[in-house]
Amino acid sequence: MRASLLQIDVNEGESVESRRHRVTSLVRDQAGADLVVLPELWTTGAFAYQSFADEAEPLEGPTHDTMAKAASDAGVWLHAGSIPERGTDGSLYNTSLLFSPSGDLTAAYRKIHRFGFDKGEAVLMGAGQDLVTVRLPETTLGLATCYDLRFPELFRGLVDSGAETLLVPAGWPERRRSHWTLLAQARAVENQAFVLACGTAGTHAGVPQAGHSIVVDPWGEVLAQAGAGEEVLTVEFDPAKAATTREQFPALKDRVLGLDPPRRPE
Questions:
Q1: Which overall architecture, per CATH, does domain 2-249 show?
Q2: Which of 1, 3, 37, 206 has the fewest Cβ atoms surrounding its Cβ within 10 A?
Q3: DSSP H/E element including 135
Q4: Domain extents in the chain
């Protein structure tokens, strides 16, 4: 299976419309790949909180329309990163879109863990409620977004739902880049799954981005990693390795679930 991760430079001097047009062309250039992955909130920048409301769009808005056409033109499965979605109730969500090679919207995932603690995304956007997996001919995808990477229980839920390849679009800051690589490898090892984590380059609202998109196999080996700038990271991998790894080293079968919390001393 051939995957291309498009590490987009989100330049504050470039309009959303211009960037959308440019990224559409980049996706079309990936004809011949099986899967293409874009970063989190690449239209606005993950830290450009002040732009979320103004640039929010419905699920089937301009980004949906251009990405659907690009997926169809290239004949690829396209994880189109995430957009600031305005729901039918007016609430904002950080929502990922997955398109089939025919351009159909196959799945949408609203980010469950919102970053910012008591500000930014955490207060501006609603939280998703649903785990999302999608069966492809070669593998089952599990969808997560950026800050989700810090919460292993979400990925356990995806694996329990059949996921073998975990997609993580992100807008991860440079100052925590070491965590990015470490967590991507940890999620791969503990879940015996491929991790394809696609970040952004550039600077979002004064926050330099980590870049360094990464593909990790089920043994935690890094198959490919990008640098800091805009880059197309392409890798060939055998998705069946997730199943064979789980058969050869069946650690997932030894999980002990439902343990009671420790008793407090009397």
A1: 4-Layer Sandwich (3.60)
A2: 206
A3: strand 133-135
A4: 2-249
